[in-house]
Design goal:
The protein is built from 11 helices and 9 strands. It is an alpha/beta fold. A 9-stranded mixed beta sheet has the order 1-2-6-5-4-3-7-8-9, sandwiched between helices. α1 packs across α3 (35-43), α5 runs parallel beside α6 (125-135) and α8 (183-194) crosses α9. It is elongated, with a radius of gyration of 18 Å.
Length: 262
């Protein structure tokens, strides 16, 4: 049986659980389904997919710890082709109006300059970043923590549909797999892995955003943060003190990316 089909089939029956798939392969377990059953299971997918064995799988994603074995997607995967143009814009689910305004304007203006905005379709800064990229006439990539056919949160259904149709929607989870709490921090490694630079628009001291930043640092990604008022106990300010670049607009991000590349 074709190795790519085996990986896709395992991803479906294990609901995209990386560790279960890996253990199955490592232990050289035998698939009990017939070839026809495997084919039917794979053909039942509504979405497209790409495996780590495919030539088009991004090399920069292969370099991270635990690269997804299968990526399920809707849209144009070639959006991710120019790694130097991929910018993750992330932050708090409970954003302030200031944080939201900064995220929107930076995403919009980066998009106007040909940069691709990568985020997680979550409430708050993530959703605002996607909308800013669309407003700027550029492209955006949403990385889901749920199944590729399951929109979470449901209030983002309209945005989910627009990205699915005209941009790029990605998940390592197939079909309508329900999200679990641990899947959201786990998917953050993909956000960091697909992005050349990570911009944090707003974050609390104990924000889950730090997981994406940590993943990014581990893989040599550039970290930029929007400054906040000194009395807000801001996670962004803490990261700036620790060495992240301070950025106030899209131009600052572009300048920082140029310096970092050199």
């Amino acid at each position: 049986m074709d190795a790519k089909k085996i990986i896709v089939y395992l991803s479906i029956i294990f609901n995209g659980d990386f560790h279960k798939i890996y253990e199955f392969i490592k232990n050289k377990e035998i698939i009990k389904a017939s070839n026809q059953e495997v084919e039917e299971t794979i053909n039942s997918l509504k979405c497209k997919y790409i495996t780590i064995l495919d030539e088009d799988y991004p090399e920069f994603l292969k370099a991270i710890a635990f690269p997804p074995l299968v990526i399920f997607y809707y849209g144009d995967f070639s959006i991710l082709r120019d790694y130097d143009k991929n910018v993750a814009l992330i932050g708090s689910r409970k954003n302030s109006s200031y944080g939201g305004d900064m995220a929107f304007s930076i995403a919009r203006d980066l998009a106007k300059n040909g940069y691709v905005i990568v985020s997680g379709l979550a409430k708050g800064i993530d959703s605002i970043a996607h909308k800013g990229a669309i407003e700027g006439g550029g492209k955006t990539v949403a990385i889901l923590g749920s199944g590729i056919d399951y929109c979470y949160p449901s209030e983002n259904k309209e945005l989910y549909d627009e990205i699915k149709l005209s941009h790029l929607l990605i998940s390592e989870y197939p079909n309508k797999s329900m999200p679990t709490p641990e899947q959201f921090p786990w998917r953050n490694r993909i956000i960091a892995g697909l992005s050349n630079t990570i911009v944090v628009a707003e974050a609390g001291i104990h924000s889950g955003t730090y997981i994406t930043v940590a993943d990014g640092l581990m893989n040599g990604r550039n970290i930029c943060c929007v400054p906040h008022m000194a009395n807000l106990n801001s996670g962004c300010n803490k990261l700036i003190k620790e060495g992240a670049a301070l950025v106030e607009n899209a131009k600052d991000v572009i300048d920082e990316m140029t310096i970092y590349k050199k």
